[in-house]
Design goal:
There is one protein chain. By secondary structure, the chain is of the alpha+beta class. The chain has a single domain, classed as RutC-like (60s Ribosomal Protein L30, Chain: A, 2-Layer Sandwich), CATH 3.30.1330.40. The protein has three helices and eight strands. The strands form two sheets. It has a six-stranded mixed β-sheet with strand order 1-2-3-8-6-7, with helices on one face. A two-stranded antiparallel ribbon has the order 4-5. Helix 2 packs parallel to helix 3. It is globular. The chain starts with a strand and ends with a strand. The mean pLDDT is 94.
Length: 128
């Protein structure tokens, strides 16, 4: 019996690219990159803070599907299109994880699959 479980979301690229929204591997939950894309449309164009909150919400929904929550998150990765958005995205992160305090990484990247995206979020959680 496999200890690996795959969870799908409603992202427009999951089937096209061939990935899962989240993978549960034993006590670990690995959430794929999440953006502010909902129902195939990028929400909050031009607002990195709102996009970050939306992306964290997509990731949190994946965690909830497997019985976990933000308190179980042990690592976050935040990918930004513009370095100038680090304070806005960091503020969103602090609002959600200020007491959880996971290991975190914030990187600036060249861009995303849709030019309106400003931020992409990945989460790793542990439910021992």
């Amino acid at each position: 019996m496999s200890l690996i479980r795959r969870v799908s979301g409603d992202g427009p690229w999951e089937d096209k690219i061939g990935y899962s929204r989240a993978v549960v591997a034993g006590p670990f939950i690995l959430v794929s990159g999440c953006t502010s894309t909902v129902d195939g449309d990028v929400h909050h164009p031009g607002d990195a803070y709102a996009q970050a909150l939306e992306a964290f919400g997509v990731a949190e929904a994946a965690l909830r599907q497997v019985g976990a929550g933000l308190a179980d998150v042990v690592r976050t990765r935040m990918y930004l299109k513009h370095a100038g958005d680090c304070d806005a995205v960091g503020r969103a992160h602090a609002e959600l994880f200020g007491e959880v305090r996971p290991a975190a990484t914030m990187l600036v990247v060249a861009g995303f699959i849709d030019t309106r995206m400003l931020v992409e979020i990945e989460l790793d959680a542990y439910v021992g």
